[in-house]
Amino acid sequence: MKFVVDKGPYLKDKDFTSKIMKKLFIALIPIIIFAVYKNGIIPYQNGYITFYEALRPLFMIMIGGITAVIAEMLYVSLILKKREKDFFSYIKHSYALFPGLFLALILPINTPLWLVILGSLAATVLGKMLFGGFGYNIFNPALIGYLFVSSSYGQLIAARGGYLNGQELDSISKATPLTNISNIAFVGSWNEIGAEFGSLSDYFFGFIPGSLGETSTFLILIALIYLIITKVVKWRIPIIYITTVLIMTFIIGTYNGMELWFPLFQLLSGGLMFGAVFIATDPVTSPITKTGQTIYALGLGILTVVFRFLTPYPEGVMTAILSMNLLVIIIDRIGAKAKFSIKKTLLPVSIMIVTLFLISFYIGHHISPREVVDTRVNIVNVEKIEDKITYVATVRAFVGLIKAELILEKDAIIEINIIEQNESYWQDIVNHDYINTLIKRQESIEEVNTIAGVTVTADALKLLVIRVLEDYEERK
Amino acid sequence: MYSGLRLIDKKSMSITESIIEYKDPEIVYIPLVNHSNMECQSLVEIGDKVLKGTVIGKRNDNIEMNIHSSVSGEVIGFEEKLYLSGEYVKCVVIQNDFKEKQAELTGVKDKITSYTKDKFIQILKDCAVTGMGGSDFPTYLKYIGKLKTIIINAVECEPYITSDFLVAILKTEEILEAIDAIMEINEIDEGIIAIRETDYQLKDKFETFLGTYPNIKLVLVKDLYPIGWEKLLIKELLGIKYDKNPMEKGIVVNNISTIFAIYKALKTKRPISRRIVTITGEKIKKPQNVIIKIGTPIVEVIKEIGGYKDETDIRFIAGGPMKGETLPNDNLIVTKNLYAVVAISSSCFSSPITCVRCGRCSNVCPNYLSPVLIRDRKKHFNILKSLHPEKCIECGLCSYICPSKIDVRESVIEAKKEIRRH
Questions:
Q1: Within a domain: residue B306?
Q2: Of A40, A258, B197, B369, which residue is least crowded by CB atoms under 10 Å?
Q3: Mean of the per-residue pLDDT values of chain A
Q4: B94 DSSP β-pair partners
Q5: Residues of chain B neighbouring A23 (CB-CB closer than 8 A)
Q6: Are residues B237 and B282 in the same domain?
Q7: Which of A129, A150, A171 lies at the terminal end of a domain, its last residue?
Q8: Does B280 touch chain A if contact means CB atoms closer than 8 Å?
Q9: pTM reported for the whole predicted model
Q10: Which residue of chain A has the CA closest to B391?
Q11: CATH number assigned to the domain comprising residue B85
């Protein structure tokens, strides 16, 4: 009779790491398909690119993954000198595919394929193997690859068209929604900030410029739900991370008179959703304790907003994750102690939350709208003839500039003459007698309602009046 | 509040129509050991005649705990035998004369409530009542001092095991009588019997008799492992946390089988000489509970009830599959604290792979440890200390849940030893 002696417990849960990784891959499939569809098939169908170019996104993703696997195999066999059984069991449990896959999904469509290979090599070797392989890396390997690619070859990718696919290159003048908002100093109307790239539903479903995998918030949300239900991800991280960014940008937006679209815009553009769901939740490089995960996610949210608003770099997600990766060891130590007492949980978490609010208000204040809005209205000339003062000013409207002459007498505007305008729906302004309304109600100009359908034009005219009156007050 | 995980049940396997009593063996082996492997000294020599209940050994330290003979007969030697901890311990070997002559010739008491507290404690000492849920901890130590609440632990949260269940079902009235007596003698106001909410049969049985005892209430707890662990059970039932010992808060927790041992002690002033052991697992042909004389090698009983299904690659576990230990053979001696042996197949686990840091071990720990961090920091003593590995209760949930199949508990146990060494 044979008895086996080993250590208990002699019951084990049915879940395996390999099953977890399989589910992670399943969650990525719709996102990969969408990346190919949006960046390959649609532009091809509309005749913007050739068939070969249509396959490009698929090539990028495959090459990213395959390079990572090959790089790992070479490293394990040549440097770690593992052979046969050891080699196969190592490869089987190191999930080499993922860094390459994730890297391809966070790169712009116009990244040259050779650069994808280099990036994937950097991700695997620098980001993972040099740290001791899967399970021992401090930084997310895909982000190391990303850092390598964007720091050394960012200009090159931008010169080739950056984030814009064949079709987008034709219709969109700016790189991405986030570069646009960064350029106009963060404050403005939806039309100025986001409308060029599509409607909010285009943002939600992913038909906006961005890296291969990051654009479809809809699919990423579905993936997140799947990953939470199947217990693959540490759910606190994406949920708290996203909520933090929403709260902070809500405060910043509200502070500057922007409505709910602003936090939504921040959520839907850039790599926030993809980063929060797939990159920040990488088990190896995120905290294991619940309090740790909470602190980590709050930190990610705060850093993302700080990077987006206070640095010249429009995208903050990847940098934020790399920075927080570095702190995981310390965060986990706080988290482990927090498990023993509620006080030790509440203290660090509330410090983070207070920081979150302070920084939101600081940024909200810092990006005050006045300086920005002033650039929309430009006072060209001021002339005083007897009692009358004549202003010539321009305002940026729906299509280009509106140039007008405003005549003031006895502290009030008595006449507005439009010198030049190219607005599409000018007739509506005329029909509503909007200009005379503005003159009549200049005392309480803030209360003048806009005109549905020609909001931008109407608002521009109103702004023009407001600025001229302000300027007049100052001169007195 | 987190109280553990729901595990597979597998209890119905060992519940049978009737329960058999294994015939007394020719030779019994009484291990000279008490709680947490405290060695005891022998008080007999080869050739000595002993009676059932004769004190044949005692603890060496200042805790009064005797070892009794479970049969009458003659001491024929000393032998090292396998104990449930997996270690070989010195045993007194007694040739059974099957006369069952009692050392204490006291009659059966009618009224067991009439003892003073001092007398009660003396009886617990004399009859060597110890924790029958596995600990073998001297029970009288739990009754020193003022008590407010008694909790009777009939939760039995380990899968497969049904010995406490059967004691509760078969001896319901005796147990209630004993609880009532304990409460009166120790001036305890509150008595709680804790069972799992899925134990419908037990619930019905207790509810039939509880009407007579207004001070004793039945509380159902969730079917989670390791909710039967003292600290968690107290928190679950009373919402009270304690530091080292439940006595600080005036609480005593006894396993239901221990309560029955107290009943016997109060009623007859004799130590128990038999106990129910669950013999179960997929490898056992006819899993069931058997009443066995203390000191019997369990291999005899297993043979008697039909043996193994097949005899290859058996994990032979003393205790439950979560907290128990596999033994090198089945020549195990039945002791007061052996509530079960489980024989299962050995070919079901894959070998461990790298930790992915999923954090599940940290989430499932009922005592708020971070097992994988302890595992990482084994060599950094100062950090290790702040992670408190000494608080580990070795429930095994961390190793159970690990998707990489790493034996996390073992690392924590090692860290625990490391802390003790310093």
A1: yes
A2: B197
A3: 89
A4: B28, B75
A5: none
A6: no
A7: A171
A8: no
A9: 0.83
A10: A340
A11: 2.40.50.100
Residue A73 has pLDDT above 90, yes or no: yes
Measure B188 CA to nearest chain A CA, in Å: 31
User: Does residue B150 surpass a pLDDT of 50?
Assistant: yes
- CB within 8 Å: A8 and B312: no
Same domain, B158 and B241: yes
Residue B129's CATH number: 3.40.50.11540
Of A171, A206, A224, which residue sits at a domain end? A171
- Identify the closest residue of chain A to B342 by CA–CA distance: A10
Instruction: Read off the tokens for A59.
Output: 């090539």
Would an 8 Å CB–CB cutoff place A7 in contact with chain B? yes
Residue A7 neighbours by CB under 8 Å, 6+ apart: B326, B407, B409, B410
Contact A212, A176 (CB under 8 A): no
- Residues of chain B contacting residue A135, judged by C-beta atoms under 8 Å apart: 354-357
**Number of separate domains in chain B:** 4
Mean pLDDT to the nearest integer, A351-369 = 89
Range(s) of the domain holding residue B70: 25-96
Mark B111-148 as b/e (b = at least 16 C-beta within 10 Å).
ebeebeeeebbebbbbbbbbbbbbebbbbbbbbeeebe
Tell me which residue has tokens 């994990």: B315
CA distance A86 to A93: 11
- Mutation test of the interface with chain B: which of A288, A290, A296, A342, choosing the one with the most B Cβ atoms within 10 A? A288
Whether residue B175 contacts residue B282, with contact meaning beta carbons closer than 8 Å, is answered with no
A86 is a domain residue: yes
Looking at the structure, do residues B204 and B188 belong to the same domain, yes or no? yes
Give exposure, A78-111, as e/b (b: 16+ Cβ within 10 Å): eeeebeeeeeeebbebbbbbbbbbbbbbbbbbbb
Does the beta carbon of A93 lie under 8 angstroms from any beta carbon of chain B? yes
Q: Do B315 and A339 make contact, defined as CB atoms within 8 angstroms? A: no
B302 found inside a domain: yes
pLDDT digits (tens, 9 = 90+) for B42-73: 999 999 999 999 999 999 888 889 999 999 99
Is residue B403 packed enough to be buried (19+ CB in 10 Å), middle (13-18) or exposed (0-12)? Answer: buried
- Checking if the pLDDT of B6 tops 50, the result is yes
Say if residues A197 and A172 touch (Cβ distance below 8 Å): yes
Chain A residue numbers touching B325 (CB-CB < 8 A)? 8
Looking at the fold, whether B60 and B153 belong to one and the same domain comes out as: no
* Residue A369 reports pLDDT greater than 70: no
| pLDDT surpasses 60 at B359 | yes
Single-letter amino acid, residue A48 = Y
Q: Which of B312, B328, B350 sits opposite A5 (nearest CB)?
A: B328
Reply yes or no on whether the pLDDT at A370 is more than 70: no
Do B298 and B402 reside in the same domain of the chain?
A: no
Q: In this structure, are B226 and B288 located in the same domain?
A: no
Structure tokens at B76: 């024929």
Residue of B nearest to A286 (CA): B357
Q: Is the pLDDT of residue A374 over 60?
A: no
Neighbours of B394 (CB within 10 A): 18
- The residue-averaged pLDDT of B220-244 equals 91
Number of domains composing chain A? 2
Nearest CA in chain B to A342: B368
Q: What is the DSSP string of B113-163?
A: T---HHHHHHHHHHTT-B-TTTT--BGGGGSSS---EEEEE----STT--H
Binding-face residues of B in 380-409 toward A, CB within 8 A: 383, 386-388, 396-397, 399-405, 407, 409
What is the domain range of residue A147?
9-171
Among A221, A220, A213, A218, which residue's Cα sits nearest to residue A102? A213
ipTM greater than 0.90? no
Question: Which of A135, A33, A154 is closest to A93 using CA atoms?
Answer: A135
List, for residues B317-342, the tens digit of each pLDDT value: 999 999 999 999 999 999 999 999 99
Residue-level pLDDT at A280: 96
Given an 8 Å threshold on Cβ–Cβ distance, is A16 in contact with B405?
A: yes
Which residue type sits at A309?
F
